[in-house]
C-alpha cells in the first residue's frame, strides 16, 4: 500500500518538476525571445508568475498565433487544446512513446515534455503542416503506399521523426532509420513498413 | 467471380486521414459545454466499504458527483455473468474497483479532487495468484474460487501410462501482458433520463450497447453507441470500454452536460484488463519412435476479481492446448480461478498463446529426452486430413502442415543454422551464443463452438444517393484493415470499383449487430456476410431489370440511381448461417470447435550475450496457411505486428505485481519492442489448402507461436530448459547460477 503511494507520488513529482521548471524558465525566455511579454500578467499575484497566462506568439506550420498561455502549458496542450491542431497525439505524457513528436527549430521534440512558452517565437512544425492542400508530402505518400500505419495513433509522431531525419540526412542508411524512430513506439508493429517508406523517399529502395 | 480487388494491395481506406493527422480519435473531439470526468477507485485489494469522506479543501458544489445512488437501472456490467458492478456498492474485490465518479469543467482540478476523497474500508485478506487461489487461502469466488472449468477427453490416457516407452512431465508459466494499444481508452457521453449516446474508442459497439441498456433501464433504441477512430485494441478494447462508457454516461446524465472521460496512460495500464497469467502442467507419453501416445494437460488461468471473459478465454486456451498434433488419448483439464487483481481480459490469441507456449516448449523437452530432432518429432505427429483433433473434430481439409514446415525450414535455413551455431557456440572466445528454434501450431478462427450460431451476426448494405454501395456492419476498424478488406470483398462481389464501396461508421443507430471485432472473425465470418449482403443489392437491381448480367461500374451507378428514384431506398440485410457439417457439443466439449483453422510454422533466430544474458531476436521466419489472402500488405502487417508482440511476450514484457495490481504501469518501465528490437520479420503465405477462396482468420495466429519459437531458440543457444515467459536476462542468469 505504502509502496503504491510512493510510486504515484514519484510520478507526480516528475510532472510537477517540469511544470515548476516552466515558471523558472520564463526569465530565460524573455531574454532570448521577443515574442513573449509577461509584464501585463505578473502584477496580480506576487507568488505565481503568469498565473493568468503569458502573451506569446507562436509560429506553427508557418502560421502566426498570438496566444495567452499559463506557463505550465505544454506544447502538446497548446497545439491540441488552444490551437485545435489535434493531429499531434498525447499517449504517455512522459516523453516515453514519441507519439507527440513535433519539430521545433529543426529538432524533433516530445511536445508533452516541452513547455509552450519555451517554443514561443520558434519555428514549430506539426503533422498538419506537411501536406500542401490535398497534395501529400512525399513521406506521407510513402507511408500510405507502404501501409506504414495500422491504427494510426503513433503515425503523426512517427512521420515527424522521419521527416526530421530526412531534413538532416536525405539518404539515411537502414540502421539510421531504425535509430531515428526508436523513440516512437508502435504497438501494431509497423516498423518494417516505416523503414521501407523512408528508404523509398530517400531513393534507396530495397536497402 | 472474377477477382479484381481481392488479393491486391489497394491503398488503405483511411490511410490519408491517418497520415495527415485528420483522423478524429476520441480525445480529439470537443463538444460545446463539455465537462471532464474522472474515476475514484479503491486502493485496497479486498474489503468492505464503511464510509466515504470528502475533504473540505475542495468546493464540492462545483463538481458533479456520481455514486451508486445515481444509477437508474441495474448496477452490473452485463457480459457472460453479471457479477461485476459499474460502481462498487459495499464489496471491494480489487485495488482498481471504481467507487465514485467526478466531473468538472476544469480538468486540471480533477486529480486533486480525486485525492481528496478517502474511502474508509474494512480490509479483508486478499489472494493474488493462481497458487493462493487453488489452495483456497481465501475463498473469494463461489465456494472454490473456480470461475470456470472444462474437461476435454479423447480416448483414455490412464490406459497408456503403464505401457509407455517414456513419460515426460513439466510445469510451465506465462506472465500477464498489457495490450498497450497506443491510444488510451476514452469516451464522451450525452445522456438524460430518456436517452444515452456515447462516442469512443472501442472494438465492440454492441457490447457497450448491451451493457448500457440495463444500467439505464432503457430500451435498445434509446441507447446509441458510436465508434470514433480507434488507436489499436488487440482485445484490450473488447470488454472494458463498456465500463468507461457507462461511467461517462452516468456523469453526463447527472450533469446534464456532455462528459469526456479519458484515461491517462498510468490509469489505463493499472486499471484495465491484461492477458491472463497461466500455469500449465504437462505430461506426455511417447513410444520409442516418438509417436504421441497420451497427452495430459492441466491448464490454469488467473482470471482476476470478476468473471468477465475468462470462461471463453479459457475455452480457447483449452481447445488449442494440444496443438495441431494427432494423438489417440488426450485429457485437458482447464480452470480459470479468481484472485483479487483487476479482471484479466481479451488479448490477441485469447488463451491460446498461453497453452501453446506450454505445449510447444514441452514437445522440445520430450524430443530432447528421446534424443530426437524436435522437427522430425513434430512432423511425424502432425494432424492430417481425416485425423481427429483434441475435441474429436475431423480435419476435413487437405492439411499440408508438412509443406508449411518445409517452407519455414528452407526460408530460415534451420538445419544449416543449427549446425553453424553449434560450431560457433563451442568456440571459447565468442561473446554471444546463437540459437534457432521452431514452433508449429494452428489457430481456430471465429467464435468457439456454437458461438457464431448464438451471435447470429447481421450485415447490411444499402445504396447511397450517388449510386454507390455502403456496407453496414458493427465491425470496427482498429488498424487491422476492416474498412479496406470489406471494400475489396464488396467490390469484387459486385464487379465494381473499389472506390465505389463505402463503409458506414459503426453507430448502433445505423448499423446492425455484425458481432464483436474479435476472434479473427472479421474477414472470415463478417467478410462472407458482406459478400452476401452486397450480392442481395445486385440481385435486386437485376430483378428490377435495371441491370443486365454484364455491366460496368458506371452502369451500376446509373441503375442504382434509377432504383432510388423509383423506390426510395434499397437496403439488404443478411444473417449468419452455420456451414453444413459443423456440430458442437457444449456439454462434453466435443465436436467442431471452429469451422476453419489457420496453420503455421515459425522459426526464430536469437543471440544471447554471454556476459549480460541479454537476448536479441536476429531473424524471424513466419510461414502460414490462412486460405485466401485478401490484401497481402495488410496481412503481412498483421503477422509482423503479432510477431513483434510475441517477441515482447517472450523477452521484454514483464508486468510487475504489487499487492494485486500492476506496479510498472508506465511506458517507461513496461518495455515493448522498439524499432531497434524488432528483427527482420520474414512473412510467407503458403498456398491455400483448399481452392475456392476460403478465408481464415489471421489476426491472432502470429501471437500463438512466436514466444515458443523464440524461447526454443534461446534454449538452443544456451542449453538451458526454459519453462516460463517473460524470460528476462536476470532469469536466464539465475538458470546459469543454478547449475554452478
From TrEMBL, chain A:
Pfam families: Fer2, Fer2_2
Residues annotated as domain 2Fe-2S ferredoxin-type: 54-130
GO molecular function (one): oxidoreductase activity
Highest taxon listed in the record's lineage: Bacteria
UniProtKB keywords: 2Fe-2S, Iron, Iron-sulfur, Metal-binding, Oxidoreductase
CDD domains, alphabetized: fer2
InterPro entries found in the cross-reference section: 2Fe-2S-bd, 2Fe-2S-bd_dom_sf, 2Fe-2S_ferredoxin-like_sf, 2Fe-2S_ferredoxin-type, 2Fe2S_fd_BS, Beta-grasp_dom_sf, Diverse_Oxidoreductases, TAT_signal
NCBIfam families in the cross-refs: TAT_signal_seq
Database matches in PANTHER family: OXIDOREDUCTASE WITH IRON-SULFUR SUBUNIT
Name under which the protein is recorded: (2Fe-2S)-binding protein
Automatic annotation (TrEMBL), chain B:
GO MF, one annotated term: iron ion binding
InterPro entries: Ald_Oxase/Xan_DH_a/b (IPR000674), Ald_Oxase/Xan_DH_a/b_sf (IPR036856), Ald_Oxase/xanthine_DH-like (IPR016208), AldOxase/xan_DH_MoCoBD1 (IPR008274), AldOxase/xan_DH_MoCoBD2 (IPR046867), AldOxase/xan_DH_Mopterin-bd_sf (IPR037165)
Domain Aldehyde oxidase/xanthine dehydrogenase a/b hammerhead: 20-125
Top-rank taxon, per record: Bacteria
SUPFAM superfamilies in the cross-refs: CO dehydrogenase molybdoprotein N-domain-like, Molybdenum cofactor-binding domain
One Pfam family recorded for the sequence: Ald_Xan_dh_C
Protein name according to UniProt: Aldehyde oxidase
Lineage: Bacteria, Pseudomonadati, Planctomycetota, Candidatus Uabimicrobiia, Candidatus Uabimicrobiales
Amino acid at each position: 500500500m505504502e509502496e503504491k503511494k510512493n510510486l504515484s507520488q514519484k510520478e507526480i513529482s516528475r510532472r510537477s518538476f517540469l511544470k515548476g521548471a516552466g515558471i523558472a524558465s520564463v526569465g530565460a525566455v524573455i531574454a532570448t525571445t521577443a515574442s513573449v511579454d509577461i509584464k501585463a500578467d505578473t502584477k496580480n499575484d506576487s507568488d505565481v508568475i503568469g498565473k493568468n497566462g503569458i502573451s506569446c506568439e507562436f509560429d506553427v506550420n508557418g502560421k502566426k498565433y498570438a496566444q495567452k498561455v499559463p506557463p505550465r502549458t505544454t506544447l502538446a496542450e497548446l497545439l491540441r487544446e488552444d490551437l485545435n491542431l489535434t493531429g499531434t497525439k498525447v499517449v504517455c505524457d512522459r516523453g516515453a512513446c514519441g507519439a507527440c513528436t513535433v519539430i521545433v527549430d529543426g529538432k524533433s521534440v516530445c511536445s508533452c515534455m516541452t513547455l509552450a512558452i519555451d517554443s514561443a517565437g520558434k519555428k514549430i512544425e506539426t503533422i498538419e503542416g506537411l501536406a500542401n492542400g490535398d497534395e501529400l508530402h512525399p513521406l506521407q505518400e510513402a507511408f500510405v503506399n507502404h501501409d506504414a500505419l495500422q491504427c494510426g495513433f503513433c503515425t503523426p509522431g512517427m512521420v515527424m521523426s522521419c521527416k526530421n531525419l530526412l531534413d538532416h540526412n536525405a539518404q539515411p542508411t537502414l540502421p539510421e532509420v531504425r535509430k531515428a524512430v526508436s523513440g516512437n513506439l508502435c504497438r501494431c508493429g509497423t516498423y518494417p513498413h516505416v523503414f521501407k517508406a523512408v528508404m523509398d523517399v530517400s531513393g534507396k529502395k530495397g536497402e | 467471380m472474377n477477382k479484381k480487388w481481392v488479393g491486391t494491395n489497394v491503398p488503405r481506406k483511411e490511410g490519408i486521414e491517418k497520415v495527415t493527422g485528420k483522423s478524429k480519435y476520441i480525445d480529439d473531439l470537443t463538444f460545446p459545454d463539455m465537462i471532464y470526468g474522472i474515476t475514484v477507485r479503491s486502493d485496497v485489494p479486498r474489503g468492505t466499504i464503511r464510509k466515504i469522506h470528502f475533504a473540505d479543501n475542495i468546493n464540492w458544489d462545483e463538481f458533479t458527483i456520481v455514486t451508486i445512488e445515481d444509477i437508474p437501472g441495474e448496477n452490473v456490467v452485463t457480459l457472460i455473468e453479471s457479477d461485476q458492478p459499474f460502481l462498487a456498492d459495499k464489496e471491494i474485490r480489487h485495488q482498481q474497483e471504481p467507487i465514485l465518479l467526478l466531473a468538472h469543467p476544469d480538468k486540471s482540478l480533477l486529480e486533486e479532487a480525486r485525492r481528496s476523497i478517502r474511502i474508509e474500508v474494512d480490509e479483508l485478506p486478499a489472494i493474488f495468484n493462481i497458487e493462493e487461489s487453488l489452495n483456497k487461502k481465501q475463498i473469494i469466488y463461489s465456494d472454490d474460487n473456480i470461475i470456470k472449468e472444462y474437461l476435454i477427453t479423447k480416448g483414455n490416457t490412464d490406459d497408456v501410462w503403464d505401457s509407455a516407452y517414456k513419460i515426460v512431465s513439466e510445469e510451465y508459466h506465462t506472465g500477464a501482458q498489457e495490450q498497450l494499444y497506443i491510444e488510451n481508452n476514452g469516451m464522451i457521453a450525452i445522456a438524460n433520463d430518456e436517452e444515452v449516446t456515447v462516442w469512443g474508442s472501442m472494438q465492440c459497439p454492441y457490447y457497450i450497447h448491451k451493457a448500457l441498456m440495463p444500467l439505464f433501464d432503457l430500451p435498445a433504441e434509446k441507447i446509441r453507441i458510436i465508434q470514433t477512430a480507434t488507436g489499436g485494441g488487440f482485445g484490450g478494447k473488447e470488454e472494458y470500454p463498456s465500463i468507461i462508457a457507462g461511467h461517462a454516461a452516468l456523469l453526463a446524465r447527472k450533469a446534464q452536460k456532455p462528459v469526456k472521460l479519458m484515461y491517462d496512460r498510468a490509469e489505463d495500464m493499472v486499471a484495465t484488463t491484461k492477458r491472463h497469467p497461466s500455469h500449465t502442467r504437462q505430461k506426455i507419453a511417447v513410444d520409442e519412435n516418438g509417436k504421441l501416445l497420451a497427452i495430459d494437460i492441466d491448464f490454469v488461468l488467473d482470471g482476476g476479481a470478476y468473471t468477465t471473459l475468462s470462461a471463453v478465454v479459457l475455452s480457447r486456451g483449452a481447445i488449442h492446448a494440444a496443438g495441431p498434433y494427432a494423438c489417440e488419448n488426450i485429457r485437458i483439464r482447464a480452470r480459470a480461478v479468481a484472485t483479487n487483481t483487476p479482471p484479466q481480459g481479451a488479448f490477441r490469441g485469447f488463451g491460446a498463446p498461453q497453452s501453446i507456449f506450454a505445449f510447444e516448449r514441452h514437445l522440445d523437452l520430450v524430443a530432447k529426452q528421446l534424443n530426437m530432432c524436435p522437427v522430425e518429432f513434430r512432423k511425424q505427429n502432425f494432424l492430417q486430413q481425416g485425423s481427429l483433433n483434441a475435441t474429436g473434430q475431423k480435419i476435413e481439409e487437405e492439411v499440408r502442415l508438412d509443406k508449411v514446415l518445409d517452407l519455414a525450414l528452407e526460408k530460415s535455413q534451420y538445419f544449416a543454422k543449427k549446425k553453424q551455431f553449434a560450431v560457433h557456440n563451442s568456440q571459447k572466445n565468442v561473446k554471444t551464443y546463437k540459437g534457432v528454434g521452431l514452433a508449429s501450431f494452428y489457430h481456430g478462427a471465429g467464435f468457439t463452438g456454437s458461438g457464431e450460431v448464438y451471435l447470429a451476426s447481421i450485415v447490411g448494405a444499402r445504396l447511397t444517393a450517388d449510386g454507390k454501395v455502403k456496407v453496414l456492419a458493427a465491425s470496427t476498424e482498429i488498424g487491422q484493415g476492416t474498412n479496406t478488406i470489406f471494400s475489396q470483398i464488396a467490390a469484387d462481389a459486385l464487379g465494381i470499383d473499389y472506390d465505389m464501396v463505402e463503409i458506414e461508421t459503426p453507430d448502433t443507430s445505423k448499423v446492425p449487430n455484425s458481432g464483436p471485432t474479435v476472434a479473427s472473425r472479421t474477414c472470415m465470418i463478417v467478410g462472407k456476410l458482406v459478400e452476401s449482403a452486397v450480392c442481395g443489392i445486385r440481385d435486386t437491381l437485376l430483378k428490377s431489370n435495371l441491370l443486365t448480367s454484364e455491366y460496368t461500374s458506371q452502369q451500376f451507378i446509373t441503375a442504382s440511381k434509377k432504383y432510388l428514384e423509383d423506390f426510395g431506398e434499397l437496403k439488404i440485410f443478411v444473417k449468419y448461417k452455420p456451414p453444413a457439417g459443423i456440430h458442437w457439443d457444449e456439454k462434453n466439449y466435443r465436436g467442431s470447435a471452429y469451422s476453419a483453422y489457420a496453420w503455421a510454422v515459425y522459426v526464430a533466430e536469437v543471440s544471447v550475450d554471454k556476459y549480460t544474458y541479454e537476448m536479441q531476436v536476429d531473424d524471424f521466419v513466419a510461414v502460414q496457411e490462412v486460405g485466401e489472402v485478401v490484401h497481402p500488405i495488410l496481412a503481412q502487417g498483421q503477422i509482423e505486428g503479432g510477431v513483434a508482440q510475441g517477441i515482447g511476450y517472450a523477452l521484454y514484457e514483464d508486468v510487475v505485481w504489487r499487492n494485486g495490481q500492476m506496479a510498472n504501469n508506465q511506458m517507461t518501465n513496461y518495455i515493448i519492442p522498439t524499432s531497434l528490437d524488432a528483427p527482420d520479420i520474414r512473412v510467407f503465405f503458403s498456398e491455400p489448402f483448399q481452392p475456392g477462396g476460403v478465408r481464415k482468420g489471421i489476426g491472432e495466429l502470429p501471437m500463438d507461436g512466436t514466444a515458443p519459437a523464440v524461447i526454443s531458440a534461446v534454449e538452443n543457444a544456451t542449453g538451458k530448459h526454459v519453462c516460463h515467459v517473460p524470460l528476462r536476462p536476470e532469469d536466464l542468469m539465475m538458470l546459469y547460477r543454478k547449475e554452478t
